[in-house]
Amino acid sequence: MADPTGKTEGKVKFTPGKVAYAILILLLVVLILYLLIARISGKIPSLFGYSVVRIVTPSMDPKIPVGSFILIKKASPEEIQEGDIITFYTDDPNPVVAGKTITHRVLSVSCEDGKYVFTTKGDNQTTNPVPDAYPARGETLVGRYVCGMLPVTAIVTLFRTHLPIAILVTVLIPTIIMTQSAIRKKIKSIPAAREDLIRERVQEELARLQAELNGNADAPDDKTKQ
Distance between CA atoms of 146 and 108, rounded to whole angstroms? Predict the structure, then answer.
């Protein structure tokens, strides 16, 4: 039976908390898939010209601490200037870093045989006191640093170091809160449902009485005039 107030039964309400929680879960799923694709392919995926890179060494401390996730934007070699922080695939044959990405600052830009070459160096003077032995080439450029991603770094770090707490915070607690909220709403709706039922029964009884009155009024008079 339709609700006389015009409300739709069973309609899902999207509260700010539910929306924020859904967005958080979606971002976590996307991030996990992104990292899996990057690990399997050995390449950095790009979405709408942007990529996410995780810094695994302290070479850019203190600007970019080890373990940080950063956002980089695809750029052409001619856009890169001295002082930019870039991510590129290194030519270093050292098996530890061969074929992997490095994020360092550009010290100088040059052009050799019509191709751009960038002299790079990490900001950390302790671990990287001299420029990189192998300059970055324009063909191996991934993109230019845009900003750090502190929320992503914090979430991933929490999952990596304190998995039970991370699950508790991101899954169990929100689930419990939403379940309790649903139960409270259900309990509050019981009196309202009873009132609606009583109101409906009263309306039905009034309609029945009105029908009887109308029937009596329309009945023929059994008295005959003499």
Answer: 19
Interatomic CA distance for residues 169 and 105, integer angstroms: 37
Contact 102, 74 (CB under 8 A): no
Distance in angstroms (rounded) separating the CA atoms of residues 44 and 37 = 8
CA 177 to chain centre: 20
For the chain, how many residues are written? 226
Domain co-membership, 156 together with 167: no
Rounded to 5°, the CA angle 219-221-225 comes to: 165
Q: Quick one: 107 and 172 in the same domain? A: no
- b/e per residue, 158-186, with b = 16+ CB within 10 A? ebeeeeeebeeebeeebeeeeeeeeeeee
Edge to edge, what strands does the sheet with 141-148 contain?
Answer: 50-54, 69-73, 141-148, 85-89, 101-112, 115-121, 136-137
pLDDT block averages, 10 residues each, the chain of length 226: 48 62 70 70 79 91 92 94 95 86 95 92 95 94 93 73 63 67 68 69 75 64 51
Same domain assignment for residues 157 and 83: yes
The structure tokens listed for 48 are 């709408």
Do 60 and 104 form a contact (C-beta atoms < 8 A)? yes
Number of H helices, E strands in the chain: 4, 7
Q: Report the domain count for the chain.
A: 2
Predicted local confidence at residue 121, as pLDDT: 96
Instruction: Determine whether 2 is exposed, middle or buried from the number of CB atoms within 10 Å of its CB (0-12, 13-18, 19+).
Output: exposed
